[in-house]
Amino acid sequence: MVCEKLPQLGSGNQGLEYLFHPRSIAVVGVSQDDTNWGRMFLLPLIQFQYQGNLYPVGLQDGEIAGMKIYRSILDIPGPLDYVICCIPAQFTPQLVEDCVKKKVRAVQFFTSGFSESGEENGKELEQRLVDIARCGSVRIIGPNSLGIYCPSQGLTFLNTAPSLAKSGKVGFLFQSGGNSRELIEIGSTRGIYFSKGVSYGNACDLNESDFLEYLAWDKETEIIGIYIEGVKEGQRFFKALKGVAKIKPTIMLKGGRTQAGSQAAASHTGSLAGTMFVWEAVCQQTGAILVDDLDEMMDLMLAFSYLEPPSGRRVSIIGNSGGRTVQSADVCESAGLSVPSFSAAIRDTLREFIPETGASIRNPVDSYFLGWTPLLLSRTLGVLGSYDGIDLLIIDIPVTISLLGFGGHDDVRAQVETIKDFKTKCHKPVVAVVSYEGTPDILQFGFELQRAFIAGGIPVYYSMTRAARALSRFISYYKKDPS
Amino acid sequence: MVCEKLPQLGSGNQGLEYLFHPRSIAVVGVSQDDTNWGRMFLLPLIQFQYQGNLYPVGLQDGEIAGMKIYRSILDIPGPLDYVICCIPAQFTPQLVEDCVKKKVRAVQFFTSGFSESGEENGKELEQRLVDIARCGSVRIIGPNSLGIYCPSQGLTFLNTAPSLAKSGKVGFLFQSGGNSRELIEIGSTRGIYFSKGVSYGNACDLNESDFLEYLAWDKETEIIGIYIEGVKEGQRFFKALKGVAKIKPTIMLKGGRTQAGSQAAASHTGSLAGTMFVWEAVCQQTGAILVDDLDEMMDLMLAFSYLEPPSGRRVSIIGNSGGRTVQSADVCESAGLSVPSFSAAIRDTLREFIPETGASIRNPVDSYFLGWTPLLLSRTLGVLGSYDGIDLLIIDIPVTISLLGFGGHDDVRAQVETIKDFKTKCHKPVVAVVSYEGTPDILQFGFELQRAFIAGGIPVYYSMTRAARALSRFISYYKKDPS
To answer: Are residues A302 and A319 located together in one domain of the fold?
Structure first.
């Protein structure tokens, strides 16, 4: 079964909307075995409250989670929009033939063993899937991919229902499955929430450009994260990136930017990775933000998710303990932010309630050894919030040494509530640094504070260094100066 | 009471040994109030099992923790070696006079409000302390400092007994108190253990050179961390640094390396910070390792604490999931490590038990989707451990996605035990990356794994990026090539 031409199905733009709203899904390759991958795709869809019709397909008769297991997708009654394939590679051509017969709109292959294997027959098999799909109107995601994530529709590829995930405004386009799972799970913990995303693997049919054009068009997506190893259509991708990056902040992580990484990418998604030099030029010309690792991507997604563009680069740091504030000023300036001295008038005002001995009323402000009582903190924030000599505020909450020093858990909780209350009245961007490395007690408490800040709309960074780097690049995006 | 010349007490070298072995300590400025700083110095000394005589001194009569509170150090029966001062600045000259009378060997001032205040009378008061001390043989640590840390002697300045702290081989010389507390608390969590350390503040008498010469001489100290804002004796410090850094890895964090940081340093320890350019040159000429923040310092201390110098820069990465291994290879090579392809013979051997589909037998090795069973992991490690094409092994344990993917807690625990068992037989350095950002469950489990690795002598990094940067600089220290 080989046809000649792929019908115009509306690739890119709104043409892919249907992928994120399938009325029915079949998971093919399901068994009741605990380690069965089909089952690991199927059950989370139920937990994540997918509302359409869900059909397990497998070789075992019987039921799973109260649903009848079908022998073939052709046995499924009614229409079928979307198929998730977890069967071995050699059986996949037959499945695509069935998809054509069943008028399935898209099939996603978790199955691997295609072009990424580096073997000639893997490449041929992958091409055969495309050839068969072209006989109908079936589009392919993958192979060697995790497929579609869309929390508003209950679509997920995590093996557990993500505990903190909810719908948001960040879209992602990830060639890697593992990386996209990490992005969702860690991102959700940090308060980064997703509109739509795709792990698209080898990209034998639908590719990075199709999905980028879609995310550019999608109204629910305001920020875009891309993890890419290789590009199928260079010119088209460049054009799409140039169009979208100016309107929606687009953060790019390039996999395979070194020789060793490139070799790993070849065996991961069969990609020819290209040199880093090219990618730096691409990002510079399109306005996309190139990052070094997934942590840096999330640091930036956090800034774009929570903060209004600030009026400039001048930060005030509300610090805790002397050496830390010196370091904070250093890392902020090294990252390209400015930590200006306060005006004499502001220093006079601060001096009214912050004594100078054991504290600092310069920028950074530091009252650690006096204790940041809610009253002192609230007055300080009030003064700085309305001071036009600074553009944004960073508040440092070092959980480890806070608990070693003054006050206990409730004192630190009171500081957080004071800051959240201030935030509701302040027009400047407010950022918290909550570093909470340590014993399980500290870890647990740090997590609690982090979630409290997120609930108050305040993004949390794990270190001043990471906050400063992300904020500087965040500001550069709007100011269009080099970061 | 002003004398002319400081007697030769043996500053530097072994001359300061007595500071770390005081036979008796008085804490001056103690009350029973919960927020009293004297009390916060006194009680941890008991918890930390200081074995010498301990004397609370304060204005209240009565007892604290079963010990009589003395009105003056002059009332203390028997000799007194060391005084910790927590009384307000204006009363400190009288205390130093008493110290001279009592033949105290050293007094440490937690008290601030001296030269760091920027006020002329603060500077004068500080000089007066020195002048009075010179009448006797009293040496001063500080003011505006936390003093001496020496776990083998039960000497601490943490306000709580550090839960995981024990004696080790890292010495520190920190101008800042807050930073040194953070170093101890977070360091101990990560398995970095300390021989001796000092938070020395304004350095009006004993300064950075005295302590550096001592740590250079001290046999218990094999690795040195320095946090410095300003230097009192530039030439002497340079000479000491040049002498020690070649023999004991010396990691330097410079506070006040930017304009804003420099201003903060002036108000923190009254230091003239100097330009970063000078410090880069100093480190290059002496062999000290200059770092950007405290995290990077600890990452390096960890490498020097646990690893034998490797034979070269060639790493093998044992990975978990495709996109992560591509990223791992990229960040290692970007940091200056090499991730070479395995020889055909090694690939053939690995192919015997790792199938190529859904896995990789190149470098990085990745068997995530097949599951790293103890048998598979152990065989893989066995092959790489005896392969002379690589110099060190990095094993990536992404706790977040491991738990989302195959296996539960016990499977990951089994992986850790397999690696620890392998380490007992392997002559190459072995490093683990355990990234465990996430919900409290993940945090708690990650901490458990981290402690298990530490118990097996395997250092743990929180991300591949941080591991790669630290390891590359660690190797450069021995190879003497630029990192």
So the answer is: no
Give the residue from A124, A229, A206, A173 showing the smallest Cα distance to B322. Answer: A229
Give the DSSP letter of residue B91.
Answer: G
Residues B347, B470 within the same domain? yes
CA distance B399 to B369: 15
Q: What is the pLDDT of residues B390-424, one digit of tens each?
A: 999 999 998 887 765 556 888 899 999 999 999 99
- pTM here is 0.93
At B279, the amino acid letter reads W
> Using CB atoms, which residue from B112, B163, B404 is nearest to A439?
B163
Kindly state the tokens that stand for B275.
Answer: 């330009």
Neighbours of A137 (CB within 10 A): 16
- B6 found inside a domain: no
On whether both A240 and A361 belong to a single domain, the answer is: no
Q: Which candidate from B175, B330, B447 shows the least CB-CB separation from A258?
A: B330
Helix axes A234-245 and A276-286, enclosed angle (nearest 10):
40
What would the 3-class secondary structure string for chain A be? CCCCCCCCCCCCHHHHHHHHCCCEEEEECCCCCCCCHHHHHHHHHHHCCCCCEEEEECCCCCEECCEECECCHHHCCCCCCEEEECCCHHHHHHHHHHHHHHCCCEEEECCCCCHHHCCHHHHHHHHHHHHHHCCCCCEEECCCCCEEEEHHHCECCCCCCCCCCCEEEEEEEECCHHHHHHHHHHHHHCCCCEEEEEECCCCCCCCHHHHHHHHHHCCCCCEEEEEECCCCCHHHHHHHHHHHHCCCCEEEEECCCCHHHHHHHHHHHCCCCCCHHHHHHHHHHHCCEEECCHHHHHHHHHHHHHCCCCCCCEEEEEECCHHHHHHHHHHHHHCCCECCCCCHHHHHHHHCCCCCCCCECCCCEECHHHCCCHHHHHHHHHHHHCCCCCCEEEEEEEHHHHHHCCCCHHHHHHHHHHHHHHHHHCCCCEEEEEECCCCHHHHHHHHHHHHHHHHCCCCEECCHHHHHHHHHHHHHHHHCCCC
Highest mean pLDDT: which range of A180-184, A295-299, B182-186: A295-299
pLDDT in tens, A84-132: 999 999 999 999 999 999 999 999 999 988 998 888 999 999 999 999 9
A404 and B260 within 8 Å at the Cβ level: the answer is no
Give contacts of B400 with chain A, Cβ < 8 Å. Answer: 182, 185-186
Return the CATH number at B368.
3.40.50.261
Q: Is A438 on the interface with B (CB under 8 A)?
A: yes
Residue in chain A nearest B188 by alpha carbon: A438
Structural tokens at position A165: 């995930």
Mutation site for B-interface testing, chosen from A327, A334, A469 by largest number of B Cβ within 10 Å? A327
Task: State how far the Cα of B467 lies from the Cα of B448, in Å rounded to an integer.
Answer: 19
Residue range of the domain that includes A294: 167-306
CA distance B138 to B133: 5
Q: Pick from B186, B255, B404: which is nearest to A323 by CB?
A: B255
Query: Can you tell me the ipTM of this complex?
Result: 0.92
Task: Identify the CATH number of the domain in which residue A31 sits.
Answer: 3.40.50.720
pLDDT at position B249: 98
DSSP B351: H
- Of the residues A254, A282, A306, which one is the last residue of a structural domain? A306
Stated as kind and residue range, the H or E segment containing B399 is helix B399-404
B63 Cα distance to chain centroid: 35
Q: What is the CA radius of gyration of chain A?
A: 26
Amino acid at A483: S
Tally the residues of chain A. 483
